[in-house]
Each structure stands twice: as C-alpha cells, then as structure tokens.
Amino acid sequence: MKKSINIKAAIYPMPVLMVATYDENGTVDVMNAAWGTQCSSDKLVLCLSARHKTAKNLRLTGACTVALADAAHMKEADYFGIASGNDMADKFERSGLTAVKSNLVNAPVIEEFPLTMECELLEEIDGANLHCFIVKVVGTLADERILKEDGKICVHRLDALTFNQFRNKYFTTGEKAGDAWGAGKELM
Ligand SMILES: Cc1cc2nc3c(=O)[nH]c(=O)nc-3n(C[C@H](O)[C@H](O)[C@H](O)COP(=O)(O)O)c2cc1C
Prior knowledge:
The chain is mainly beta. The chain has helices at 53-61, 74-79, 91-95, 155-158; strands spanning 14-15, 17-22, 28-33, 36-40, 43-46, 63-68, 99-101, 108-110, 115-126, 131-142, 161-164, 169-172.
C-alpha cells in the first residue's frame, strides 16, 4: 500500500558538488551545489541561484571547477554552502583549504578534494522554470591515491559525500549492489 506524502521532487541521492571560481580580483570562491548533475559525457548542468557570488563569477570568467566533496572534508564542504562570497571577502581563506590555478581554465583547483573537473561555461539558461549553467568538462584531475592499478577511479577511496534532501544530511556512498547494463539481463 502506498501513501501520498507531502513532498514534491524526491530524488535521492543528490551529489555534493564544490563549484570553485575566481572573482574580478582573483579571489577564490567555492559553493556547495546539490542541484547539479552530468547531462552528457562531457557536460554538467549546475542549477545555481543567480544571486550567488559563484553565479556572478562564472559569468565573469566563463569558467569553474567542480569537485566531488569527500567525507574527510565534510565540514568545509558544508561551510561552503552556508557562507557566501557576497558577504564574506575571506570566505575561502577561512576554510583553511588551498587553491591553485587550473592549467586549463581560469578557475581554481581546490587541492584537498580528490576529484575535480575543470570546466568552461557553455550556456546560461534563464527560463521560466529553470536557472542553470551548462558547463563543458575540458579536464579531470584525480589524486593518485583514489586510482586503481588500471587507472580507474575507486569509489571507496574517493569516499564522496551524497546529500539526503529528505533530512538535510550527508551520507557516504555504500557498497556495490550490482552491474549496470548487466543486472537486468536475465529479464531480457
Ligand atoms: C547541501 C547544500 C546544497 C546546496 N545546493 C545548492 C544548489 O544546488 N544551488 C544553489 O543555488 N545553492 C545551493 N546551496 C546554497 C549555496 O551553496 C549557498 O547559498 C552559498 O552560500 C553560495 O555561495 P556563494 O554566494 O559564495 O556562491 C546549497 C547549500 C547546501 C548546504
């Protein structure tokens, strides 16, 4: 028996994306974004409020990096979702994290996050029902410690956070449940 519950969109899990940009003075800003995802093999969609410092920076520089927050940096990741570069000139400095400029795009790479995509802004969509930025991933940087011998990412070593919007909690990713394009084959 199903019960109709009083929530609308109910996607789970959501990512914990760290969107890093420079402002006009080269000051680093990072924001936490759960309303974002991959929308093709080399493109991401980021649903960011136009009021955020990040949105202004992204328009200005045409670039950002998008990192997956890991469990070891949950405190900093959450802080990036509470504080705004609009009100706090030293928002990034206060986090204690370190940034270096990407070799590919005009945006900072946050050293402590283990997996980072370097992105160029393709399009801002300001529709009646959606405000988002489409970015193209031009490079991806992974800490060697999260890579397996075959060069692929080990999700256990990555230890990425996910966001549970039902209870405003962070979780880490769990165990492998099965093979994609495989688990359903016996029903074919
Ligand atoms: C878990 C979490 C997820 C968030 N996801 C988004 C999001 O997807 N889009 C958005 O516009 N704001 C989101 N926010 C809010 C921004 O991160 C927050 O307003 C931040 O202060 C913006 O920083 P900025 O002004 O320095 O860019 C989220 C906050 C948290 C804590």
